């Protein structure tokens, strides 16, 4: 089981978007057994499933048209202090676990969750506030990475653009993080309206869903590139696929 945290101490930077895009595609199209743990007190992902998705599931169930399973991946709300107790109980049931964590990085529970992950993905932005928060957070992860290497633990972290707009500031951010030796994924998601219509039922690699949210064919290419790079970087080999 690979544990992937998506974290940044700056709010509104695209954590939930990144998780829903990756989890949906890896579960529905790459056939991994995926669990999403919503450990953020805001409960964004749990709220999306309850508010956006569950009503349509119930309507289809009542009409007898629901195709089971209703969701491609499991989603659980777990407190920060109980995350790994829960994962220990179900470690044989999943190939990939995504953990959505709150923005704060100054408490013990947060450090413990980050340190126990195999991969931390850090959504990055280009504004001054986003840059300062992201650099500070990634430097914390750099220290966790150093300690993990000393203990022989599997730990990596990567910056990833979750709403790229191709502004000059984004190029400056890339060059700055590269100069600091902070790793980043080459694949990214653009700032598109289709990603604002979050759903935990569908994958952006599903043509019918892309049409429903107004996404063009280029969205499939960028989502697949992001999934493929994450699979390679995280060591999610074919042997893990169900």
TrEMBL record:
InterPro entries: AAA_dom, DNA_Partitioning_ATPase, P-loop_NTPase
All copies of domain AAA, residue ranges: 1-46
Gene3D superfamilies: P-loop containing nucleotide triphosphate hydrolases
SUPFAM superfamilies: P-loop containing nucleoside triphosphate hydrolases
Superkingdom field: Bacteria
Protein's UniProt name: ParA family partition ATPase
Organism the protein comes from: Hymenobacter ginsengisoli
Gene: parA
